[in-house]
Amino acid sequence: MKTKKKLMSAGRYLVLITLSLFIIVPVLWMVSTAFKGEAQTYSPVPVWIPRPISLSSFQKFFGLYSFGKMTRNSLVTCLGSMVICTACACFSGYGVTRFKFRGRKQFMAFLLVTQTFPSVMLVVPFYAVLSTYRLTNSLLGLTIVYAATNIAFSTWMMTSYFETIPLELDEAARVDGANSFTIFWRIVLPLTVPGIAAVAIFVLINGWNEYMYSSILISKDALKTLTVGIVSLNTQNQVHWNDMMAASTMSCLPLIILFLCFQRYFIAGMTSGAVKN
C-alpha cells in the first residue's frame, strides 16, 4: 500500500510538472528572446541564454515604437473600467443580498445569461451605440465597453462575497440608528476589501489583455492600446520577434507585480461563497 501511494503521488507530481512546463517554457523563451539581437533571434540553433545580452529591443519600446503612449492609453481605459465595475458591483451586490424586491432572481439570471454571448457578436452593437454618441476613436468609449463586458461577472463575484457577511451586522447598526447607506459605507464595505480587490484585479487583467474591441473601435494611432501595438509588430513582410517579445515582457511586468502583491485578496475573493457555513 505504501508503494502504491508513493507511485500515485509521483505520478501526480509528474503530471503537474509536465503541465507547468507547458506554461513556464514559453514564458522563459519570451524573456530570452527579448534580450537577443537580430542575429541570435533568427539563428537556426535555439539559444536560451543570449550572448551578448542586447537591450536594443527595450530601447525601441520607449523610442521607435512609442509604446509609452500606448501603455498610458491602456492604463487609462483599464483603470477607468475598473473603477466603474467595482463601484457598480459593490452597489448591486449589496442591494441584491440585503433587500428583497420583485425580480431579484431574474436580475441575477439576466446577468448570468449575458456572459453566454460570444464577444465577437457584441462588436457591431457596441460600434453602433458608440457611433450614435460620437464615442468611437475615444478612450472614454473604450472604457465604457470594457466596463460593460466585465460588470456582469463582477456583480456575481461581489454578490457571493456579500452573502458571506452576516445580516446581524446590518440589524445591529440599524438598531443604533444607522441608515442603509451608512451601514453599506461604514460597516459592510470595509469587510469586503478582499472581494473588491479580486474584482479590481479581474477587471484590470481583462482590460489590459483585451485586443478585439481596442483594434476595431480605435483607429487613431495616438489612441491605440498596448496589445494593438504589440500585434502591429507582426508585419506582412517580417515578424520582429525580439521587439515583440520585449514589448510582451514589458506588458506582463505590471500584471505580475500587481498579482504578487494582491494574490491573497484575489484568491480569497474568487473562492468566497464556494462553501456554505
Distance between the termini: 35 Å
How helix-rich are the residues, as a percent range? over 70%
User: Which stretches are poorly predicted, pLDDT < 50 over at least 5 residues?
Assistant: 273-277
Strand content: under 5%
Q: What is the radius of gyration?
A: 23 Å
Coarse structural class: mainly alpha
Shape: globular
Put simply, the count of helices is: 13
Number of strands: 0
Largest sheet: none
- What is the average per-residue confidence, as pLDDT, rounded to a whole number? 83
Order of helices and strands: HHHHHHHHHHHHH
What descriptors fit this protein?
277 residues; mainly alpha; 13 helices; disordered C terminus
How does this structure look, described?
The protein is mainly α. The chain has 13 helices and no strands.
What's a quick, concise take on this entry?
This protein is mainly alpha-helical and 277 residues long. Helix content is 71%, strand content 0%. The two termini are 35 Å apart.
Topology:
Layout: H1 2-34, H2 38-41, H3 56-62, H4 67-98, H5 104-114, H6 123-132, H7 139-162, H8 168-175, H9 180-188, H10 193-209, H11 212-217, H12 226-231, H13 241-271
Helix pairs in contact: 1-13, 3-13, 4-7, 4-10, 5-7, 7-10, 8-9, 10-13
